[in-house]
Design a protein that fits this description.
2 domains; de novo design (two linked rop proteins); three-stranded antiparallel sheet; five-stranded mixed beta barrel; 22% strand; alpha+beta; 6 helices; 255 residues; binds zinc ion; OB fold (Dihydrolipoamide Acetyltransferase, E2P)
Length: 255
């Protein structure tokens, strides 16, 4: 280790972890200031280590990091909310994992996105509070993740002729927008008019207020299908874990 490193303070939530070597962990943390970052936590695999609790998936903390040549290193932190209660309920665990996964696949590293950070945190707290239908929460979250990563849907105006849409049953996937009944329906997906209206609602209303949406199972299932399709169209990425291993080996050689 050479040179002086500056301590960087931020808030962050652990979205993914991986064991590394005998005692260490690699974490992917979504932070308010630095976006999604990869961090090495020395000794964090051992339960007696002071970093152990901070380095669990879902943990939301105030962190002190150091930036090495290629990656961050965690030094200390204070837990704000561990969210470890999700581990006691398989549904909660699945939903929380998905909230994290969506950040992982939609964000490249080291690109700050404070609005998305706030959104993700809101989703985690809303899930924990059990205050609304988790399916609706996840659909609202997906709609907003799309919006905050440059793939926001325009459902109020026709994406072809720009006329105001009152009701529609088609989304053009090239323009990320609705298509009115007069325009040509191609390069997109059909959906029920009620589902279109529900999606429009999710696209407009802040996430903490979407509990007002009254959707039956048919609409909920179609919303899930449509959003899944849009998300997998935009964020198709191959896993990067192996590349990261190479990266760390290289950076350790240089230290
Ligand atoms: Zn039109």
């Amino acid at each position: 280790m050479g040179g002086f490193l500056t301590a960087l303070k931020c808030k962050g939530i652990v979205i993914k972890t991986m064991d590394y070597k005998e005692n260490d962990k690699i974490l992917w943390i979504f932070t308010d200031k630095f976006g999604k970052i990869s961090v090495i936590a020395k000794g964090a695999k051992k339960s007696k280590n002071r970093l152990f609790n901070l380095c669990l998936t879902f943990c939301f903390s105030e962190l002190v990091l150091y930036k090495g040549k290629n990656m961050y290193r965690i030094n200390e932190g204070n837990i704000i909310e561990s969210f470890q209660g999700f581990l006691n309920d398989l549904d909660m665990l699945t939903y929380a994992s998905y909230i994290c996964e969506l950040i992982d696949i939609s964000m490249v590293e080291n690109e700050p996105n404070l609005e998305l950070f706030k959104l993700m945190l809101t989703a985690m707290y809303l899930l924990k509070s059990n205050a609304m239908d988790s399916d609706i929460l996840l659909r609202a979250y997906e709609t907003n993740v799309l919006k905050h990563t440059g793939y926001g849907l325009n459902l109020d105006f026709c994406s072809i002729c720009h006329k105001k849409i009152v009701s529609a049953d088609y989304i053009n996937l090239q323009y990320y927008g609705g298509v009115c009944d007069e325009c040509m329906k191609s390069q997109g997906i059909h959906l029920n008019r009620d589902t279109y209206s529900a999606l429009k609602f999710l696209n407009t209303v802040p996430m903490e207020k979407v509990y007002r949406l009254n959707a039956n199972d048919k609409i909920k299932n179609e919303l899930q299908r449509v959003l899944y399709l849009i998300i997998s169209n935009n964020y198709a990425k191959s896993p990067k874990s192996l590349q990261l291993f190479e990266f760390i080996k290289e950076s350790e050689k240089n230290e």
